[in-house]
Design goal:
This protein is of the alpha+beta class and 185 residues long. The protein folds into two domains: 10-83, no CATH class; 95-184, Glutaredoxin (3-Layer(aba) Sandwich), CATH 3.40.30.10. Helices cover 39% and strands 12% of the residues. Strands 4-3-5-6 form a four-stranded mixed beta sheet, with helices on one face. A two-stranded antiparallel ribbon has the order 1-2. A hairpin with a 2-residue loop joins strand 5 (151-153) and strand 6. Helix 1 packs parallel to helix 3 (60-70) and helix 2 packs antiparallel against helix 3. The longest helix has 17 residues, at 21-37. The two termini are 32 Å apart.
Amino acid sequence: MAGGKRMIAVQCSCGKRTLRASERKLLRQVDALLTQDGAGSGALIPILQKTQALFGYLPEPALEHISLKLGMPYSEVAGVVGFYSFFTTVPRGRHLIRVCLGTACYVRGGRRVLEAIERKLGIKVGETTPDRQFTLEIARCFGACGLAPVIMIDSDIHQRVKPAKVESILAQYAGKKRVAREAAK
């Protein structure tokens, strides 16, 4: 037993690695997504989006599984994941914080807001808190320049953010589960 969960090793459909029972359960959910969205090459990006919403990131076994089920080379699937910045192969926190550092947000204090978040959470851009509660990223523009500086937590936009407001904003999300994104629907 690991972490209170029973681990049963089962051979991966690709034959290259052994999957835990928990991973196999998630891959069955990926199969359901593939059935729902179809198996054409045009289904790849929606399948990847929904798979990422399911896992919180795109683990290699899921990419291998999708590759096999869609009849596409793994390199093509991995290439799409690597090309689009939305996709990640690294586990993210329960809540994704994106700080806008586009011109308007930067000029109006976006960098100071970012530094306040880094101090409060004890992480840098691209990192996840040890409890996997928050992941911090930067963005270049949310198209809300008149409301700068702006941060986005999950799908919530926070406008005219000041460094002094960071703690109270983050407190709204501490211990709260992320609301499923549109891609998961």
